[in-house]
Write a structure and sequence with these properties.
The protein has about 500 residues and is α/β, with parallel strands linked by helices. About 35% of the residues lie in helices and about 20% in strands. The chain has an 8-stranded parallel β-sheet with strand order 7-6-5-4-3-2-1-8. α9 packs antiparallel against α18. The relative contact order is 0.07.
Length: about 500
């Protein structure tokens, strides 16, 4: 069940929020500590939806700083008037006593960290006999979500467990997958306070996702034990439109699956290993993890091994992880859609960037017979790739003094939010040149805009992005991808 967290200031605003929750078919958590005034009789005499009443003190992250006996008496009154559940802090449970006919949620909050003894804390709360146990802890790294997901999966008592903050969002989306009693969402009228790939809100709880995104993007209210799990591994992850394109594809084809933004800082291989117990069915991998993630898999497609980078991981039926690379096939298909099959043979290609996409495109162009020159801010990395594909390498300044038939930007230069940047000066672009840009956010980069003005044929990053996502979808699911839906979703998102 989804539960929207309401933090109104007045009784009138609270009544409006409860009515909206009822229309949406969800529960409502009513935070009395956020209200300047409240009339419990009006609020709870005939509530339109199930209501959880909370009166959170400052010591547990709330706003109430008055008398403790007075606070607990308000909660007792709320129970008598019709609240479905009363949420009370673990250190105030004995003072509250029983509150029939309402049921008690006993809660523990830690806004600083995920304690190492979280499982023991949950066990102590479960032993109190409360109807529902709630633990909400801060995730300082995505690895902190492992302890929370385990509690959800293994709990024998009805449990609400979540990791707060943007690094813990996956626990909010996946709560029902692992048996959570409910999961919270922010009202759609709330103002986002952070932006990293989902609309996050910190007012009621750090990292809450809007109700609209929980339902429309992630279909969190329909997630269950059999829902398949996918996600994009990135650092940062806010620029990625992969959750939109893949979740739209799952919805279009009727698949019981969800695709998540996975903000992985540090070693991506360690993250993949940590998530094995939760049986993710596949991953997309992007900047900067395409090379390091390969250490976590059991099998690597031969060309992906030669490239030394993977952007796609699939979990086989036997649980083994298989890595491949759809970047080079998607990139070349996007180029050939503009110039024609076989055009690249014998052409002079300048590739900017020797990272994951650059490596993939270098191997792909080498396979098709192009004459390649590489440049990268890391000369050592460029040199290593040049040896692998028998290409030339030089500094960008030197490269700009030479003629090329095709320019490939495989760097993040020009990516949102730094959309005023271009990897090359405009005077380098000539009418007969083909210009490929792997950047897809924004829809039109400064490079492709200036290239088109110079009379170049351009290959926008969206074509590469959609094609590689299509290949991923079909590898994971064994079904034809809804290509036009996937392209439409990306274009709509980039035009907002």
């Amino acid at each position: 069940m989804l539960c929207v967290s309401l933090m109104p200031e007045t009784t009138a605003a609270a009544l409006e929020g409860l009515a909206e929750a009822a229309r949406a078919g969800v529960w409502a958590e009513l935070r009395l500590d956020a209200m300047r005034e409240f009339d419990l009789a009006r609020l709870l005499a005939n509530p339109p939806c199930h209501v959880i009443v909370t009166y959170r003190p400052r010591r547990e992250g709330g706003r109430y700083d008055g008398s403790e006996p007075a606070r607990l008496e308000v909660l007792r009154q709320a129970a008598r008037l019709g609240a479905r559940y009363i949420d009370v802090e673990h250190d105030a449970l004995t003072g509250l006593s029983d509150v029939p006919p309402a049921r008690v949620i006993v809660s523990y909050h830690n806004f600083h960290e995920t304690p190492a003894d979280l499982a023991a804390i949950h066990a102590r709360l479960a032993a109190t006999g409360a109807a529902v146990v709630k633990v909400a802890v801060m995730a300082n790294h995505i690895f902190d979500t492992v302890a929370v997901l385990r509690i959800l999966r293994d709990a024998r008592t009805p449990t609400i467990a979540l990791s707060m903050g943007p690094r813990g969002v996956i626990t909010r989306i996946l709560a029902l997958k692992f048996g959570g009693f409910l999961t919270y969402a922010a009202p759609d009228t709330a103002t986002p306070v952070c932006s990293w790939g989902v609309k996050c809100h910190d007012e009621a709880g750090p990292g809450q996702v809007s109700l609209a995104e929980m339902r429309d993007l992630y279909r969190a209210d329909r997630i269950g034990r059999k829902t398949l799990l996918y996600g994009v591994i990135a650092d940062p992850v806010g620029h990625s439109l992969s959750p939109r394109i893949h979740n739209a594809a799952f919805a279009e084809t009727g698949l019981d699956a969800v695709y998540l933004p996975l903000w992985v800082e540090g070693d991506p291989a360690a993250f993949v290993r940590a998530m094995r117990e939760f049986e993710f069915d596949g991953y997309s991998v992007t900047i900067p993890h395409k090379q390091a993630v390969m250490a976590a898999v059991d099998e690597i497609e031969p060309l992906a091994r030669r490239i030394g980078a993977a952007n796609t991981i699939q979990r086989r039926p036997d649980g083994r992880l298989f890595a491949t690379n759809t970047d080079w096939t998607a990139g070349l298909a996007a180029i050939e859609a503009v110039v024609g099959a076989g055009w690249v043979r014998g052409k002079r290609a300048l590739i900017l960037g020797a990272g994951g996409v650059g490596r993939a495109m270098a191997f792909g162009l080498s396979e098709r017979g192009a004459l390649i020159t590489l440049t990268d801010v890391d000369a050592k990395r460029a040199g290593a790739l040049a040896r692998d594909v028998r290409a030339a390498t030089c500094s960008l300044d030197r490269a700009l003094g030479r003629p090329y038939d095709i320019l490939l930007n495989c760097t993040p230069v020009g990516m949102h939010p730094k959309t005023d940047e271009s990897p090359v000066p405009q005077e380098f672009l000539r009418q007969e040149m083909v210009v490929y840009d792997a950047v897809y956010n924004p829809l039109e980069t400064r490079l492709t805009r200036e290239a088109r003005a110079a009379g170049c044929r351009t290959v926008p990053g969206i074509e590469h992005f959609v094609r590689q996502a299509v290949e991923q979808f079909e590898l994971w699911t064994g079904r034809p991808a809804p290509v036009e839906t996937m392209r439409r979703v990306v274009i709509e998102a980039l035009r907002r």
